[in-house]
Amino acid sequence: MEKKVSKTGEGVKINFQGAVQKGQIIKMVENCSTGQCECMSDETKKKISNMQVAGNDGDVELHLEGDVSTEEIEAALKRSKVLNKDS
């Protein structure tokens, strides 16, 4: 799976391509929004006001709204148990 993190006017966008299922990204978002994820610090979670998933299996986008940096999100992706469980 390839992950590309980029800054947007509203926050950060993550493009997932390759071996990625939309449901996998939705599960990651649900875990974050219910406090079940350990990938982001509490400080980073507080900065995010909205998360939206778009696209289809193999080409999924995750839009994060808020004052977050690409570095914070790249670090969280590396710690994500949902994304890295098969590694």
Overview in brief:
The protein is of the alpha+beta class and 87 residues long.
Assign an overall shape: globular
CATH topology: Gyrase A, domain 2
The run of helices and strands is: EEHHEEHH
Q: How many domain modules?
A: 1
Strand order of the largest sheet: 1-2-4-3
Major sheet summary line: 4 strands, antiparallel
**pLDDT averaged residue by residue:** 91
CATH architecture: 2-Layer Sandwich
Helix content estimate: 25-40%
Distance between the terminal alpha carbons, to the nearest Å?
A: 11 Å
Query: Which structural class do the helices and strands define?
Result: alpha+beta
Total beta strand runs: 4
**pLDDT < 50 stretches:** none
The number of helical elements comes to: 4
Radius of gyration of CA atoms, rounded to a whole number: 12 Å
CATH class: Alpha Beta
Amount of beta strand:
25-35%
Task: Report on this structure.
This protein has helices at residues 22-33, 42-47, 70-79, 81-84; strands at residues 2-7, 11-17, 48-56, 59-66. The chain is of the alpha+beta class. The protein has one domain (2-84): 2-Layer Sandwich (Gyrase A, domain 2). A four-stranded antiparallel β-sheet has the order 1-2-4-3. Strand 3 (48-56) and strand 4 form a beta hairpin. The longest helix is centred in the first third of the chain and has 12 residues, at 22-33. The mean pLDDT is 91.
Task: List descriptors.
about 90 residues; Gyrase A, domain 2; single chain; alpha+beta; globular; four-stranded antiparallel β-sheet; about 35% strand
Write the layout of secondary structure elements.
Layout: E1 2-7, E2 11-17, H1 22-33, H2 42-47, E3 48-56, E4 59-66, H3 70-79, H4 81-84
Antiparallel strand pairs: 1-2, 2-4, 3-4
